[in-house]
Each structure stands twice: as C-alpha cells, then as structure tokens.
Amino acid sequence: MHPAFFITAFTLLGILFALQEWTNMGLEGYSVDPALVFETWGLQYFLWGVICWLLARIFRQFIQTVSAARMLTVVLPASFAIFLIEDMIWVSFFPRLPMKHPGMSYWHRVAFNYKGDLAESLAIFWFAFFFVRGVGYYQELREKETVAAQLETQLANARIAALRMQLNPHFLFNTMNSISSLMRSDIEGADSLLEQLSSLLRMTLERRDIQLIPLHDEIEFTETYLAMQDRRYTGRVTRTLEVDPDLYDALVPAMILQPIVENAYAHGLSKMERGGELAIKVRKLSGHVNALITNTGPPLNNGRRESPNGHGMGLTNVRNRLQLHYGTDSSFSISDLDRNRVQVEITFPLQLAATSDESTTRYGA
C-alpha cells in the first residue's frame, strides 16, 4: 500500500499505453509529437495512481467491508465524481487538446474528454477498488494464519509445560513414594492415586491441537490434578471449587486453570505446614467468564511470581494465550489480597459450545 507502488505502477502503465499508441499512429502514417503522447498518457495514469493510493490509504477499511448494495448506491456514484475531478485536472494541463477543436472552452473540453474516456476510467477505478479489497482479504487471511500458528505454538508450550511439571522427577518421586507407602496400608488408595496420575497424563495427551474446550472438561482436568495434590498435602490444604452451572458448556482455552493452580501450590501452599487454603471460583460476569484463584502463602515479590526453576512460566503462558485468543477483551492480574493471600483473576468473553467436542479459535467458525 506504499504510495510509490501505486504511483509508479500506474505511471509505467500509462507510458506503455503511450508507446503503443505512438507506434500505431506511426504505422498508420500520422506524425505526432511523441512527447505530447507520453505526457498525456503519463499524466492521466499518474493522476489515477495518486487517486487510487488516496482511496487505499483513507478508505481502505470501508472498501474492504462495504456491501454490494452500498457499492451500487455509494461507490458507483463516487466513481463518476472521482473521474470528473481527475478529468478536470488533466484538461487544465493540456489547453490545446483536443487538437481538432482548438477553440473549445475549458468546460467543453472537460465534457468532451469525460465522454470519451468514461469507460476506460471506470475500468481503472473498479480495478483499483477490487485490487485494494483483494489485498485486504489476503492480509486478513495471512493474519489469521499467523495467529492460528501462534496459538498452536502457545498450546504446545502449555502442554509441554504441564507434562514437564507432571514428569518432574521430584513430583514423580513423591507420587511413587506415596503409592509405595499406601500399598502396605491402603491398596485401594494406592491404586486410586496411580489411576489419577495415569488419567492426568492421558487427558493431557488426548487434547492434541484443540484450542478451546468446554469448561467442564477443564474442570475435570483440574480436579484430577487437585485430587493428587490432596494426597500429597494431606491435612495441610483445604480447598473449595465453585463453578456457575450456566458456564459448564462455556468454551475456555485448554489448560487455562491448571497452570494457575500449580503455581499456587509451588509458590504458596507448599510453603505452609498447615492451614493452607485454596479457593477456585468461576462465574459469569457481564457477558464474560471470570475466574478467581485465591491461595494462602507468602506475598508476591514485586508483583511477580517467577523463579529460576521455571515456575511462573505457566502464568506467562496463560497471559499470552488470553491475549492471542481475545485481544483487549480479556484481562489477567495477580495481586496480594493481604499479607497471607494471593489472588489470580482472569476474564475473557463468554462463548458457549455448540457441541461437546467443539474446537475453535478467536478467528475460527
């Protein structure tokens, strides 16, 4: 959309037409000043280059979204008016044309050229109009492809991060120790813990490239993770989970809650010997899904929760995916409620799933 592209391309096109006309006139035996031929054609297409660039620059969004009805009622009349302006400018530069009618007044010459060049000029205008429209569609398509690729990358990172956390040697060591201990006193408990670990890994892998999932699936995944943590932190953490029943079929980004809950355990609850509390509340708020995850633990350090061992990456991933999915229509915040409680709040638009296995993105449908 750079002006040099429009103006240069149109001017070169005018020069080519001028060369063609001058060659044909020479073959037919006419003697015409070549400078005049190239000046008239060159100026005409130079003006159209400037006009088309201005249209693309100022009315690009309108051109890309205008309906067929408004093309007929607004754009078509505008094309006649724009050609008239172009014709008036062109005629003012060549007062001796047309040569066969040297005594014509300015307005007679404008009318004469307007009638003679109307079809050609309308063709130029509508070509430029649909060219700008086509370029807009192409750029929008490329933007969608870029965003989709970024979403896939972010989701892959989230899945890898979750697997890394689950397969962390320390985590597996403690889980296997718990299973080994339970095998001597509570075989059913050990079997249950092993099934939960297997279920968590299976759900992570089965989601593949799905971007948005129903909230009830995300809650199931999170509850499985919480059940395992309950056995690890027996008697140390009390947790509550409240979900608005109207939101169970709401579409949410996959793995949007678990990284936040994992972060709450890693940075807060794991540091408490007893009396730990974790509250998860998901509600509908002004046409949006609003999730509050509150946990007891040490306060934030300068408003951030990051450490060299990788904790905090999950929160960054959540924030980035919300931005990619919903743009400015989403929010993410983490703050101290008081000296002993930290809260993460996320908000994004409410979108209900048409089917239980619906998968989509911000731009898909």
Explain what this protein looks like in three dimensions.
This protein has 365 residues and is of the alpha+beta class. It has 2 domains: 3-142, no CATH class; 207-349, Histidine kinase-like ATPase, C-terminal domain (Heat Shock Protein 90, 2-Layer Sandwich). The protein has helices spanning 3-27, 34-58, 60-65, 68-93, 106-166, 169-185, 187-206, 215-232, 258-267, 313-326; strands spanning 212-214, 237-243, 251-253, 276-285, 288-296, 331-338, 341-349. Strands 2-4-5-7-6 form a 5-stranded mixed beta sheet, covered by helices on one side. It has a two-stranded antiparallel sheet with strand order 1-3. Helix 2 runs antiparallel to helix 4 (68-93) and helix 7 (187-206) packs antiparallel against helix 8 (215-232). Mean pLDDT is 80; it is low at 302-311 and 356-365.
Tag the structure with descriptive keywords.
365 residues, 2 domains, 13% strand, disordered C terminus
Question: What's the short version?
Answer:
The chain has 365 residues and is an alpha+beta fold.
| CATH homologous superfamily (4th level) name of the largest domain | Histidine kinase-like ATPase, C-terminal domain
- Helix content estimate: 55-70%
According to DSSP, the number of beta strands is 7
Q: Tell me the structural class.
A: alpha+beta
What proportion strand? 5-15%
- Per DSSP, the total helix count is 10
Order of helices and strands: HHHHHHHEHEEHEEHEE
Count of structural domains: 2
Any idea what the radius of gyration is? 34 Å
Biggest β-sheet, characterized? 5 strands, mixed
Mean pLDDT: 80
